[in-house]
Amino acid sequence: MSQKAKALLVSMPWADFQFPSSQIGCLSAYARQNGFDVDGRNLFLEAATLFGLSDYDKIVYARPRLGELFFAALLFPEKEKQILKYLKRHISSPENKLKRLSDCVATIYQKIDWRKYNLIGFTVCYEQLFASLLFSKWLKRDFSNIKILFGGIHVAGNRGVSVLHCFPDVDWCVDGEGETAFVNLLRCLENSEGNIGCNVPGLIYRTKTDANVCPREQLHSLNGLPDPDYDDYFRLLESHPLVRDTNIMPFLTVESSRGCPYHCSFCTTNAYWRGYRTRNPQEVGEQIERLCQKYHINRFQFNDSSISTRQSRELFTYVRQRNRDYQFSCEIRPDADKSLLAAMKYAGVGTVQFGIEALSTKLLSKMNKGTRVIDNMKVMKFCEELGIKHISNLMIDFPTETQNDVDETVYNIEYAKAFRPPIQIVKFTLYDNITVYKDPKKYGIFNIRNSKPFNYLLPHSIAHNLSIIDKEFDSRSEPNNYKALLDGFEKWRLLHDQASVDNRILLGYYDCEDFLSIEDFRNRMSADTPEREAMIYISLEGYARELYLFCDSIRSFDEIKKHFPKWDEKEIKKVLNKLVKLKVMFREDDDYLSLAIRANGPR
């Protein structure tokens, strides 16, 4: 006789408390759509309220990432002193924080009636592994009949296999997308099937001698998926006076696609998803509207690794027509054009991540980005003109990066200073199963191992056998000198900080039909520098003015010649070269881009 399966999905610290778990929201709604009884608990929000929102937030965004170590100290008490010694180098009063955390999670654990469930699923993304393992240990101690399932990027592929090898309390892990695997697992539990693992595509399961991975099975289409269920998160918000008084404004997460059509060599996306699938734009827009009405939240973050530039135009046009004041953040490729970014802006997109990564085309090629510096310049320029904030990074220490690549970026910063800088410079991080990891010989790396401090702060058997997503390595490449890059980036940042105070456009133009004037403030050294000493003034007339406006977007020299058939080719080259030398135009190969933005705003 079959037994009705009842499952609980759990999201542990250190998830950001401003974001209800999209994994819980999507999986629980999908399981219910398929007839299963599933609850969800955003336990990270409960932990944040008990621990203290400010201190919780500091740990979430600490660099290096420290959250996992606090739970590792609770999971492996024999390593507590050594872990605390390490934490003291990076955060104040770790002993007090650890004691508070221990009390918090013990209180949360005791509040839940675990006996109602025969399956507990943990969503295991960054900074959630050891917290989930701690609760798994307690659950198997107290309720040995409960089955434990892990899913998420931290347990995909060989990482999930290593979790099963190291931690007998975990019964299964999901490799990749969760909906199909989760529903099939619930179905098998209800039918009391013996060897469940081999019957569930995408499940990582134990055999008598090893751990096996069933081939993945993804949803064929994203259309028709139910709205994510964020009810538990908002119940918690209402039930905690501290949270209400702090006036947390959550973001709701939605998705219009999964996977990515590109294969950047440092990215985990295509190690987790297979292929690229998009969702009907109007369906996404309607879902946003329903979620806004249900939860009275107007802030949305797209979970997409890269929103489709083709379909996003339809999506954001539809959203704008609904005449609601939304706030969106998303990630999109630098091949977005000005009209698309304008449509996004007018629909409510205030923040975009492009994946700038570098201002060296040679380095971008090594990263397999499929973009050039001029593409990055273009989207940075359009964001500046439209008032969209981009939150991209510059990456250093990429394997095979050369000093010439670094120097090229330093040189191109002088052109890019007209626009808001990326938010930070980050060091390349090696994740397992990304392209660089799979082909170490090509990228000149060897001796790949778990990153510090996990390779020495965990018990030896765990450190040796558990695959942590962050890796470190040795390299055959010569170390690069980043001083000029770091100095140039800091000056770039300070220049824009001052420009923001002055409400100043650093490189703008005014078009008066007969002539076009460009004002360049990029060389302003400080707030004390007199304006007339800080500004370079350039006036363009006739064909020169028309050429500058024509190159508002990237134009090839052939396009320029075709657009100005009466203008002598040598004269065109002469004007272009002059504008490039003045750094008010950028040239790459045979393509040109005007850098100044319309000072009075886009028309």
Explain what you see.
The chain is an alpha/beta fold. Among the domains are: 208 residues, Rossmann fold; 95 residues, Orthogonal Bundle (Arc Repressor Mutant, subunit A), CATH 1.10.10. It is 43% helix and 18% strand. It is built from 26 helices and 26 strands. The strands form seven sheets. A seven-stranded mixed β-sheet has the order 2-1-3-4-5-6-7, sandwiched between helices. A hairpin with a 3-residue loop joins strand 20 and strand 21. It is globular and about 80 Å long.
The CATH class designation of the domain at 6-213 is Alpha Beta
Helix content: 40-55%
CATH homologous superfamily grouping of the domain at 6-213: Response regulator
Question: Judging by the overall fold, what is the CATH architecture of the domain at 6-213?
Answer: 3-Layer(aba) Sandwich
Say how many strands there are: 26
- Number of helical elements: 26
User: Rough shape?
Assistant: globular
What's the Cα radius of gyration?
Answer: 27 Å
Sheet of most strands: 7 strands, mixed
| Residue runs with pLDDT of under 50 for 5 or more positions | none
Keywords:
seven-stranded mixed β-sheet; Arc Repressor Mutant, subunit A; 26 strands; about 45% helix; 26 helices; five-stranded parallel β-sheet; globular; Rossmann fold; alpha/beta; about 600 residues
Give a quick rundown of the structure:
The protein is an alpha/beta fold.
